[in-house]
Amino acid sequence: MRDPCPVDCLESWAKGELPAAAAAQVSAHVAGCPACAHEAAWMRLEHATFAERARRIAPRPALTFARLEARLRLPVRSSPRSSRGFRAAMGASAAIATLSVFLSVLASAPASLDEPMLPALAAERSTVAACVDPTRDAVVLLEAHLGACLMATPGAGLR
């Protein structure tokens, strides 16, 4: 039986951060385990990619306490987004969007909840025997009424 995969120390091994004894054990395992060898290769590649990226980024000067105090003394610049007019315009546009969604949902609702949407479906349901599944016919009638194909039509393929 093969040793369990050392997932908890595989990344440390790939970075070369393990002590010699533990690194030798993990190396022996990785040599015989294709899954761990693949994972270690990806970890090394990822580590090398991020190390190269870090070398390309210019170092930033350290933020000392004196520099922090100097930055805190600077006047605050107002951005256009923090102005009162911008906030009012965003609120108004959100209200208009909400109202338009509400009105579109209201317009697509049936005229009355008391009358059935499909009178033909209701009439057919009353004449169907108890042992017959009316689902397929009901879906066909609903598709005809809506003028669209329902993607989840039971027992039928896509058209």
Explain this structure.
- This protein is mostly helical and 159 residues long.
- Among the domains are: 47 residues, no CATH class; 39 residues, no CATH class.
- It has 7 helices and no strands.
- α2 packs across α3.
- The chain is flat, with a radius of gyration of 34 Å.
- The two termini are 53 Å apart.
- The mean pLDDT is 75.
Helix content: 55-70%
Given the C-alpha coordinates, what overall shape results? flat
* Radius of gyration over all CA atoms, rounded: 34 Å
Distance between the termini: 53 Å
How do you describe this structure in short?
By secondary structure, the chain is mostly helical. Among the domains are: 47 residues, no CATH class; 39 residues, no CATH class.
Give the helices and strands, then pairings.
Layout (H helix, E strand, L loop, with lengths): L9 H6 L4 H13 L1 H23 L8 H9 L10 H25 L10 H9 L7 H12 L13
How would you describe this structure in keywords?
single chain; flat; 7 helices; 0% strand; 159 residues; mainly alpha
